[in-house]
């Protein structure tokens, strides 16, 4: 938001970046944006016909009659897996490498499009044999692997809706999602391997299924990753490699309507219960393809690498669907950026000649730190000349990290694309076009053509540029969330709140637009959602986990800015017994951190826990979170505390344990 300061640091796309770009120059960007303004349906309809092979063409682009439950290309029919695999093989590209998989230990496996199609078909046939059919929900709890992508694609092929649960979530979180989505099958692995350590996924899955209400889960299919020991229930469990052994590698795709739910992905909201974000097939796939072409300027020769996990939306759109739908060659990585050392990403870029690289600010910050401490893992030590475009996603990127990334990874040559979007948006929303948009560190720049982003106040009225406000999207777009699984009312209340007039999509982020350039800078969440290392966490989810512990009476969770993880979780806790101090407090804090790890997953563990006799409350008993945020940061309390009933508590909570 330091606008004058930022203006001095504008980076024009180089002549090289502009030459031959899919969108070359700002004129071309403006022309596209103007096309969308002029004829919204025509614009999207044209893109959809080009990006997707339709089994049956659609006759209508957008139906707003049941707003905000918009539908796109509704009478069109397609299959996502057909678009990702068959069509490339049919057009003679079966021998092209689809995935270059690098395992944690460095072992590399390559799969061509023809091989991928055969594997997906065999697995889809095996699923079919186990009764899995169109409309069923299948939970996937797998490590980063070719098999994980095969599982997603096989579901898509059958018209079964997948719901991938990140491998770092606990048995309890997995259970909650299996039950909410009503899964008939669970696909998992014996173990996950990351950074030389294993995690017993099958065991966690067994624990989840034993928690009750999972009777509808008829099959558990297990990918053998390590051969580690697992418990086995012969009535339910089957090895992935065994059930595909005798299957045909031909499987006719199930043609589905464009609105058919391709997947449901859970994400945190401001209440305790995660939201099952439901995506469509047609509109979603269109935007996955289009943003690959626009934001990453994807070309046939590119080697694309997105470092996200398939358990998050980024791994859905920019690993499992976008690159495959284009027939791209992509790198998929099992491990972590710091193993065996913090030069792993740079080594892999060089080894696989990656040209388009996409990662998270938190990774950049931690690798900067590592490079500063140990010259041997500095990106300068590696040959990164293959890189053409480098991107970031997941959280605001501080200008320092952005500049380091551009300089040391991008060689001052590659455009940095800071992409703002969300689980709910399906794909990029605000991002530079590398061959067109001049970039500014810390700004995601301009909405992509067709995306009508704006900044408004609490009543939905526009705010002047330069003044912060609420980020909204004024018109529906094809890849948007369709509903919250099983809870359409929550969908309406969360994303189309009546306070904003009911027609604006509420993103949940704050933003400010530059008066001169119209560039957006995201200022962070405006609700009770935290962003820790690019992972979205609800404060209420963590609070619910804490109060589920027998010793905890009350808990309030807030975020604190953190130099590496972006935000850190700080929990204020009162116990059902006297406030612990010293050694005892430290012990208890550890117990509670581990407890949260078990309840939700290690990503949700509070960095710090402070114990108090009480929490700061108003006379009506409402916890004053803004005060807790100041205390967590170690700031002096300058806010008005006149409504606070127990001001003396601030002193007690202000001190870290
Ligand atoms: O707060 C924004 C932040 O991440 C949130 C979305 O999180 P999730 O649904 O998990 O999806 C992450 C991957 C798309 C947003 O509401 N966020 C995401 N990208 C950016 C960002 N904040 C600032 N700049 C970004 N580029």
From TrEMBL:
Domain (Acetyl-coenzyme A synthetase N-terminal): residue spans on this chain: 29-84
EC number: 6.2.1.1
Gene Ontology CC terms, in alphabetical order: cytosol
Catalysed reactions, as listed in the record: acetate + ATP + CoA = acetyl-CoA + AMP + diphosphate
PANTHER family: ACETYL-COENZYME A SYNTHETASE, ACETYL-COENZYME A SYNTHETASE 1
Binding site for CoA: 194-197, 314, 533
Domain AMP-binding enzyme C-terminal: 541-622
Superkingdom: Bacteria
Cofactor: Mg(2+)
Posttranslational modification: Acetylated. Deacetylation by the SIR2-homolog deacetylase activates the enzyme.
Record-stated family: Belongs to the ATP-dependent AMP-binding enzyme family.
Record PTM N6-acetyllysine, positions in chain: 622
Binding, ATP: 394-396, 418-423, 509, 525, 536
Name under which the protein is recorded: Acetyl-coenzyme A synthetase
HAMAP family according to UniProt: Ac_CoA_synth
Source species: Trinickia dabaoshanensis
InterPro entries the UniProt entry points to: Ac_CoA_lig, ACAS_N, AMP-bd_C, AMP-bd_C_sf, AMP-binding_CS, AMP-dep_synth/lig_dom, ANL_N_sf
Domain AMP-dependent synthetase/ligase: 88-477
An annotated GO BP: acetyl-CoA biosynthetic process from acetate
Residues that, per the record, bind Mg(2+): 547, 549, 552
GO molecular function: acetate-CoA ligase activity; AMP binding; ATP binding; metal ion binding
Function: Catalyzes the conversion of acetate into acetyl-CoA (AcCoA), an essential intermediate at the junction of anabolic and catabolic pathways. AcsA undergoes a two-step reaction. In the first half reaction, AcsA combines acetate with ATP to form acetyl-adenylate (AcAMP) intermediate. In the second half reaction, it can then transfer the acetyl group from AcAMP to the sulfhydryl group of CoA, forming the product AcCoA.
Keywords: Acetylation, ATP-binding, Ligase, Magnesium, Metal-binding, Nucleotide-binding
Presence of the UniProt keyword Chaperone in the record: no
